[in-house]
Amino acid sequence: MRAASGSLFGLAYGDSLGKPTEFQEYAAIVARYGPGGPRVLVGEPALVTDDTQMALAVGEALFEVGRITPAAFEPVLRRRFLEWAASPENDRAPGMTCLRACAALADGRPWTRATQTGSKGCGANMRVTPVGLKPGLTEDERAGAAQLQAALTHGHPTGLAASELTAWAVYLLAGGLAPADLLAALRERCSEQRKVYRGDWLGDLWQQPTVTSPEEFIARGWDETAAALDRVADALASGDHTGDPCLATGAGWIAEEALATALYVYLQSPDEPVAVVGRGAASSGDSDSIACLAGAFAGASLGLSAWPADWQTQIEYSDRLFKLGMAWD
Ligand SMILES: [Mg+2]
């Protein structure tokens, strides 16, 4: 089935389709591409954005480290992020939070003093899906790695919770969960994890002004993420899916909204992957991040063969996506 390859390439395809629409109004996107959004990759190669670049950084860090522990994963992840930040290819309108945190990480200080604690921007969420694809992780390793990769740059609890839930969604879909059951499973995860602070991974990150306990810190993140899922359920139940999806579930510049709007556009037609990424790109908000997550979901569920075959060689970083997918499938 090749779920890992399908998800990694799906992420890149969505990212590439959403790249030109990220900073466009919905009406302008529809006028140009139609209501289904862009559905043709453009360019040789078809360029992606920082979303795919950073997802590759996370994926290749996971690949490089055998057993994923906080001590083994953090320095490799840090090095991969810094390599990305310094790369001449880092010219794809990256988020300020990632740039600021990487600048601080570069001097070797503990990540807890480099991370942007006030930021729950979607920059940690758009790159997390490889964590859901790496085989052989325990539940704590998967959850801890998803949160730690977020925490290096985005220290806000909702950045952590939404990232973990995004990786969890990919993990469930790759494992064969029916898309119709996904939303309920994610909602349940929010309830189960609400007071689980992974101190082995996160250290004293919770010690922020006005926060009195680790449980209180992380519960805020899960509660905001759960509320975003409830908006997805309402939007799907409404039956009217015309128009800008961001009006229903959020613009996606912040972590829980990127997850929510990606889920919304995916769950409208989970068996039509090209329609899913086109719909994600036809959005007024953070179109590349919404479409890349939606593509990662569709690809995890349907596998590599569900995508147009010729896209595989057209997409930028095809060799790196292929290598990582082959290693995990
Ligand atoms: Mg981007």
From TrEMBL:
Pfam families tied to this protein: ADP_ribosyl_GH
Lineage top rank: taxon: Bacteria
SUPFAM superfamilies: ADP-ribosylglycohydrolase (SSF101478)
Protein name per its UniProtKB record: ADP-ribosylation/Crystallin J1
Lineage: Bacteria, Bacillati, Actinomycetota, Actinomycetes, Micromonosporales
